[in-house]
From TrEMBL:
This is nucleoside-diphosphate kinase. It comes from the Bacteria. It comes from Rhodonellum psychrophilum GCM71 = DSM 17998. Belongs to the NDK family. ATP binds at K11, F59, R87, T93, R104, N114. The lineage of its organism: Bacteria, Pseudomonadati, Bacteroidota, Cytophagia, Cytophagales. Transmembrane segments: none annotated. Keywords: ATP-binding, Kinase, Magnesium, Metal-binding, Nucleotide metabolism, Nucleotide-binding, Phosphoprotein, Transferase.
Length: 140
């Protein structure tokens, strides 16, 4: 399975704006298969756990508050070269720097409310997918 799965979350800004369907359409049209997906809402504690790697960063508290402010859509995706191809599809973290046609360029409103998360490595994709989903919640 190495190299063929990644993890994403549609974040509270995009979910709340009703952009989940349009974003999933772009993801599927780019060749990604949905392995697992659900709508859920993080507590501030769970958001803190998910983003623990950023706990020393100045934006950590705001990020945890934001990520627990509304519903999200965590998704495991499958495709060859999934992590790299997905990061190209979503664009830079800050939508001001994101390339034209990328998901963040189209849907994100700020570096914090940046529409979607995308794993930065195969290892983190597995860790992040396991954070939200058991093996029984995966269809592939
Ligand atoms: P994400 O890819 O989910 O990973 C960490 C998140 O922290 C990032 O997207 C941004 O939404 C958020 N964030 C908020 N402020 C910053 C910042 N100054 N630099 C990087 N990430 C930030």
């Amino acid at each position: 399975m190495a190299n063929n799965r990644t993890f994403t979350m549609i974040k509270p800004d995009a979910f709340g704006a009703g952009n989940s369907g349009a974003i999933l359409k772009m993801i599927e049209e780019a060749g990604f298969k949905i392995v697992a997906m659900k709508a859920t809402k993080l507590s501030p504690e769970m958001a803190g756990k998910f983003y623990e790697v950023h706990s020393e960063r100045p934006f950590y508290a705001a990020l945890c508050a934001y990520m627990s402010s509304g519903p999200i859509l965590p998704v495991i995706l499958e495709k060859d070269n999934a992590v790299e191809d997905f990061r190209k599809l979503i664009g830079a973290t800050n939508p001001a720097d994101a390339a034209e046609g990328t998901i963040r360029k189209i849907f994100a409103t700020s570096i914090e409310a940046n529409a979607v998360h995308g794993s930065d490595s195969d290892e983190n994709a597995a860790i992040e997918g396991n954070f939200f989903f058991s093996q029984f919640e995966r269809v592939l």
